[in-house]
């Protein structure tokens, strides 16, 4: 009974993946024990595992231990209420064990996209088994392509398409280095004029649950960095319908140059991103793409001549861009302090939370939704706390915030959250 209540509680509060991970690990660790475990020690094993997976925050182990002890002492889990007629709808510990038995799952098994890898001491047999699985997965992906699920332009994350499900990435995204959770305040001198909005995020209203400022840091002196910036702009131009499943999110975006520009092209791009709020995001991408295709010019005047030849820009927009990017003043770089993340020159932050993509520096909407999920609780609380004090008088009359005021609010809330996140992560 205690095991069932504990598994049900962990599933409800921390997710099914956390519960099944605890189940398999505890079964493995206790299978050879000759002495009986006390209830306190049994709960302690689960708490230690949840802490090791970063499902519970550092320093909360004693609180979670006491919560679970009280739960078992009370003899029922939230949602059960002791009602027999609801028992069929609730997950049972016995059912979990039976599922593992039926599927022949045991501790130590490995999986590829959910398929068990062969267990063999013979490397030749193991290799042949893995090859069969890879061929199966290739056929599966090809079938998705033939059905039109995967095309040349969609989805942005094939990985997320193959492995889809509720809260798949919330706590166990394989590319997120949870053990090295880190926050950085980027471009402390950057202001609201560098913020970029999607069409749906441009207007604030009282229904917004959380404000996010998502920032990309790129080495604009390097082709890979410019390509990553173009990919980031693609996400902004074609955002998902929502950034979160249950909360209303208003997101603003900003692009930084990793360091002081050393080339005329990167200098112009840095100035363009510094004044990004003055232009439509599609025009920003058009300029970035045009300069990326051209060989490096010897001076800024040559770069400006390339911009003047972009036919997709309206003349007044082209003139305004040329006037702004041609200035001698240099916009401040990201100025990221020395940290584990700055060994990479292309990375991202959401309200200061650092995310470094594995391999390819480009980011997808799925990745951004993942970071927003992870940072939602604090962003939601701080937005609800700060927003009423930042709304302008005009909001009372119209119920909406003008674009300029929206930029100021996003910049203020985003930097406040980043500073708070930095302080709290350092104190931990």
From the spread of the alpha carbons, the general shape counts as globular
Low-pLDDT runs of 5+ residues are 77-91, 165-179
Query: How are helices and strands ordered from N to C?
Result: HHHHHEEHHEEEHEHHHHEEHHEH
Beta strand %:
5-15%
The rounded distance between the terminal residues' Cα atoms is: 36 Å
Give the count of helical stretches.
15
Residues in helices, as a percent range:
40-55%
Global structural class: alpha+beta
Quantity of strands, as a count: 9
Radius of gyration: 26 Å
Main sheet: which strands, in order across? Answer: 3-6-5-7-8
Average pLDDT score: 76
**Largest sheet, if any?**
5 strands, mixed
In short:
This protein has helices at 2-14, 16-30, 39-52, 61-74, 93-102, 123-146, 158-162, 223-237, 264-274, 281-293, 300-308, 315-325, 365-390, 394-398, 403-427, and strands spanning 111-112, 115-116, 196-197, 204-205, 210-218, 249-257, 347-350, 353-355, 400-401. It is of the alpha+beta class and 428 residues long. The chain is globular, with a radius of gyration of 26 Å.
Detailed description of the structure:
There is one protein chain. The protein has 428 residues and is of the alpha+beta class. It contains 15 helices and 9 strands. It has helices at 2-14, 16-30, 39-52, 61-74, 93-102, 123-146, 158-162, 223-237, 264-274, 281-293, 300-308, 315-325, 365-390, 394-398, 403-427, and strands at residues 111-112, 115-116, 196-197, 204-205, 210-218, 249-257, 347-350, 353-355, 400-401. The strands form 3 sheets. Strands 3-6-5-7-8 form a 5-stranded mixed β-sheet, sandwiched between helices.
